[in-house]
Amino acid sequence: MAIMDVLQDEPVIRTSFVNVDALRPPNVIFRALYNFTLYCAEIRIRLNDSKTIPVNCIPDITQHEIYDQFYFGFYQPSQDVTFLNHDNNNAILSLIELSIDFGDNFPAGPLMMDIIAVDSDYDPITESIRERRVDNDPFNLTVAGMNAYSLGANQFYLLKFSRIIKESIIPSWKNDFGITPNYETKSNIISNLSGGPLNLTNLNASALMMQPMGIGVVSVQVDREIRTHTYLGSIGLIGGADTLRPWGLVQLYCCGISRLTRNKLKKSLPTIPFFNTDIKDRPPIHDLSDLSLDEKIDLIPKLQSRIDSLELFLRDYVVDVHYLDGIRDKSSETGNSTKNTENMSNLNNQAIHTVSKQQQEDDDSTK
């Protein structure tokens, strides 16, 4: 039965969240039936005076390539472009603005453009478009449709994103035996899009801005496959999986583990009776209704000792206390970072307002 469990075992997903100190923006693919021009700027906020600093990122833009009668444009951030990191000017990247100019040579009707946002560390979509091939990988097809949007002219859009890393077990005979497997890593983003009118006289333009979800503290979701049944795990359960002998075959007969564990328990813990066998002619401890008040008071030290011993046993041999302590410490850190998060959110709102105001001033100057 144990062998069948191993052979038929399907990995389960263990999800965790890891705080990161740097997060790259996603790649963005633009597609339209007519020509267009892309512009790019990074909006950075200097921490000492809250001044916004626009940085030109045109080198990260690839303009209107034609594939299958569609015009494509690509934004692919450089390796040194990251959110959360401070640069040499003590400034932090707050948002990225991608401006779209549809020009004048376009067909009648509403101006629309399709975009796809893809994780910059795993982007099979851009590669397949440029190589003019169809990618039938199920995961890649899912990624292509997860963050696809349509943009209209004279609109302002804000794309907020978070990152997910998927670690899949690479098939191998080692996996069945419980040896640490090798993993294939793929990643994607999830996002939401909001926006409104841009209020420019140039009705043939639009703007897309990008920010990570969560400011100050940003977490990346990690989904890792793990095996629940292995041959080594099954051997450890043979011969001792009952309530009286909680150690399996490996622990009972290998390297004296059982004897060492019993000796340690005898030295570190007192005897833990399941009934008050040390007191004759008395009911079990859990049945105290017939005892007098003096007898109940007399039992308090024994009950306290019993609770302390059980707690010590659980901490040392059953519950991973270090894991629980880690959760508690992370909760404390999250609470301490709340103030920083609020400050960063205010700075980002200031940056968006400044960019919108600057666009309005530029438009007024062209009148």
Plain-language structure description:
The chain is of the alpha+beta class. The chain has a domain at 9-228: Acid-sensing ion channels like fold, CATH 2.60.470. It is built from 10 helices and 13 strands. The longest helix has 29 residues, at 338-366.
Furnish the topology, listing elements before pairings.
Elements: H1 2-7, E1 12-20, E2 27-32, E3 37-46, E4 52-56, E5 61-67, E6 70-75, E7 91-101, E8 112-118, H2 124-130, H3 138-146, E9 148-152, E10 155-169, H4 173-177, E11 183-197, E12 205-212, E13 218-226, H5 231-237, H6 249-253, H7 257-268, H8 293-317, H9 321-336, H10 338-366
Distance between the termini: 81 Å
User: How helix-rich are the residues, as a percent range?
Assistant: 25-40%
Give me the Rg, rounded: 31 Å
**DSSP summary: helix tally:** 10
Which fold name fills CATH's third level, the topology of the domain at 9-228?
Acid-sensing ion channels like fold
| Percent of residues in beta strands | 25-35%
**Which CATH class of the domain at 9-228 applies here?**
Mainly Beta
Overall shape: it is elongated
Q: H/E element string?
A: HEEEEEEEEHHEEHEEEHHHHHH
Quaternary structure classification: single chain
